Amino acid sequence: MRNRELTLGSLFDGIAGFPLAAEMIGIKTLWASEIEKFLIAVSTYHFPHMRHLGDITKINGVDIEPGDIISFGPPCQDLSIAGKRAGLQGERSSLFGEAVRIIREMQSATAGKYPRFALWENVPG
To answer: Which of 30, 56, 64, 76 is an active site residue?
Structure first.
């Protein structure tokens, strides 16, 4: 019996750093969420098969294909030692909660089966 291929969904995708790393080790990226047009163009160029979902605040985790791994790196300005240090309650960093919401919705829709892993990346601070 063959193992099933692992899959990734990338929130706050940026220039597709997580999809790049994932695909280098055989993990298929299903979809990504990003709002900056230039960053979407970069990831579309490198990953034409990847579905783009747009604004994270408009995504429902029930409606998207569940992935084994959900990666996310929300805006860091409120967390960074170079920023205002507002933490997760800051205007931008509070978007962290959107990633958690989507993960919970996906878990609810799949009876806790997906995602198997959540990978959160951010700055020191």
So the answer is: 76
Angle at CA 119, nearest 5°, toward 105 and 36?
A: 80
What are 77's two structure tokens?
């300005």
* Known catalytic residue at 76: yes
Q: Which tens digit of pLDDT belongs to each residue from 89-109?
A: 656 666 788 999 999 999 999
